[in-house]
Specification:
Elements: E1 2-3, E2 23-26, E3 31-34, H1 38-46, E4 51-56, H2 58-66, H3 68-76, E5 79-82, H4 85-92, H5 104-117, E6 121-126, H6 131-142, E7 147-152, H7 161-171, E8 175-179, H8 184-192, E9 200-203, H9 207-212, H10 220-224, H11 228-235, H12 237-262, H13 265-284, H14 286-299, E10 305-311, E11 317-323, H15 330-333, H16 358-365, H17 373-379, E12 383-385, H18 392-396, E13 411-413, H19 426-439, H20 442-458
Parallel strand pairs: 4-5, 4-9, 6-7, 6-8, 8-9, 12-13
Antiparallel strand pairs: 1-7, 2-3, 10-11
Helix pairs in contact: 1-5, 2-3, 2-12, 3-8, 11-12, 13-17, 14-16
Family: Belongs to the bacterial sugar transferase family.
InterPro entries: Bact_transf (IPR003362), WecG_TagA_CpsF (IPR004629)
GO biological process, one term: polysaccharide biosynthetic process
Length: about 475
């Protein structure tokens, strides 16, 4: 055990709790995970107060199902952070999307970098003999000013818990990283964290191996593709095959089973309809989609697709896809033409909008500009049938009653869309959407899909 004794200049024992981090309940996992940016998460973890932090990935969830002691330790943790593509996929099963992947390999170095600015110190406990020392040395080099309080390995040193606890407390550490592997590290913290003077403790898995350089992390392009687990499997196939191959299949199957058990027959039917209709439309309309893309490129400068943040079910933002029907500076010019709206209420619509291109007027007339939203439907962000997806600024201006239209997924078509579109006032649109949300059925969805063809042909309110 190695540590440098010093006296902390900060009073970290004050019982001052900052505002709670936002969390999201994932029905597929029956877990409440932090739903925040890395920056906000780090600020919360470094604020005054005691916190025990676990990272939850697919392997952790598998262990939690079969290990009652580990499950209890997870339940007693103060902060659970989403880690990896598996958790992200589990969220998508119920149409949810977490703000960020808060994996320890990225989050902890960023946390320590900020901790160093406040003069806080860190103790590294775990790993094979020498690994924690090497990790500490590399951290000191990468983060100037970071105070390494001490290190202990996860083998001979870990055999005497009392000695480790005493060494950590003698070191004066503000942050303790425990890398004993799942589930030992969480069980150790669950049993002993209350006896540590350090206010912040984290179970960090294989982090020390990455920091020490004994395990090479996947290239950035692999990480962006969310395939880091494949890289790790290729590095250690014999040790990790069961975890990543059989384990991932088991994780997704269990998550899917939980979703199916909680999902009504009507919701399953509706999602089946969405996938069937959108996938078929994508195939059948592919020639039209290609011709539209070529026409847009030939008509005006700029990208083929227009991406914009819209508000989805339960107020969750998502990026909507449309064919670009306006000039590239349309968003910047929106404020100057708001007074020319032809429509009463919150939502802006102008028949003579000067930002619309020549091709844009044609594709708007026949609603072709909306077709890329088929991708949003396949992603689970939208439905074939539902209320019009609103802009965040529009939702901010909603009266309280109008917020009820966010109870269901927004749709490509719906009651408003087949009833005159822009010729329907905002208040009337809200009442239509509220009525649909409270009485929707699969039959009603089918009727609205069929009526959409007539609405497109007439072009009423399409501009």
């Amino acid at each position: 055990m190695k540590h440098a004794a010093f006296t902390s200049d900060f009073d970290l024992s004050r019982p001052v709790e900052p505002a709670c981090l936002p969390t999201m309940h994932l029905p597929a996992l029956d877990l409440d995970l932090v739903d925040a940016t890395p920056e906000r998460t780090i600020d919360h973890l470094l604020a005054p107060g005691r916190r025990r932090v676990f990272f939850m990935n697919a392997h952790c969830c598998n262990v939690r199902r079969r290990d009652a002691a580990y499950a209890q330790a997870v339940a007693r943790a103060d902060v659970l952070l989403p880690d990896g593509i598996g958790v992200e996929l589990a969220a998508k099963m119920t149409g949810q999307k977490l703000t960020a992947n808060l994996n320890g390999t990225d989050l902890v170095p960023a946390l320590l970098k900020k901790a160093a600015r406040f003069g806080k110190s860190v103790y590294l406990f775990g790993g094979t003999p020498g690994t924690a020392d090497a990790a500490a040395a590399n951290l000191s080099h990468a983060i100037p000013g970071l105070r390494i309080a001490g290190t202990s390995n996860g083998f001979a040193d870990a055999a005497d818990a009392e000695a480790v606890i005493a060494d950590i407390n003698d070191s004066g550490a503000d942050i303790v990283l425990v890398a004993l592997g799942v589930p030992m590290q969480e069980l150790w913290l669950d049993r002993y964290a209350h006896r540590l003077n350090a206010p912040l403790t984290l179970a960090v898995g294989a982090l020390f191996d990455f920091l020490a350089g004994t395990v090479v992390r996947a290239p950035e392009v692999v990480r962006r593709a969310r395939l880091e687990w494949v890289w790790r499997l290729a590095q250690e196939p014999r040790r990790l095959a069961k975890r990543y191959l059989a384990g991932n299949v088991s994780f997704l199957a269990h998550a899917g089973f939980r979703v199916a058990a909680r999902t009504s027959v009507a919701d399953v039917q509706r999602r089946f309809l969405d996938i069937t209709v959108s996938a078929s439309a994508l195939l059948l309309l592919s020639p039209l989609l290609a011709l539209t893309a070529l026409a847009i490129k030939a008509d005006s400068h700029g990208p083929v697709f227009f991406r914009q943040t819209r508000v989805g079910r339960n107020g969750k933002p998502f990026t909507i896809l449309k064919f670009r029907s306006m000039t590239t500076d349309a968003e910047a010019r929106r404020a100057e033409i708001l007074t020319s709206s032809d429509r009463e209420g919150v939502c802006f619509k102008s028949r003579t909008d000067p930002r619309v291109t020549r091709v844009g007027r044609i594709i708007r007339r026949y609603s072709i500009d909306e077709l890329p939203q088929i991708i949003n439907v396949l992603r689970g962000e939208m439905a074939i049938v539902g209320p019009r997806p609103a802009l965040p600024c529009e939702v901010e201006a909603y009266p309280k009653r109008a917020l009820g239209r966010l109870a269901v997924k927004p749709g490509i078509t719906g009651v408003w869309q087949v009833s005159g579109r822009a010729t329907v006032g905002f208040d009337q649109m809200v009442e239509m959407d509220l009525s649909y949300a409270s009485s929707r059925t699969l039959l009603l969805d089918l009727v609205l899909i069929l009526r959409t063809f007539g609405a497109v042909a007439s072009g009423r309110g399409a501009y």
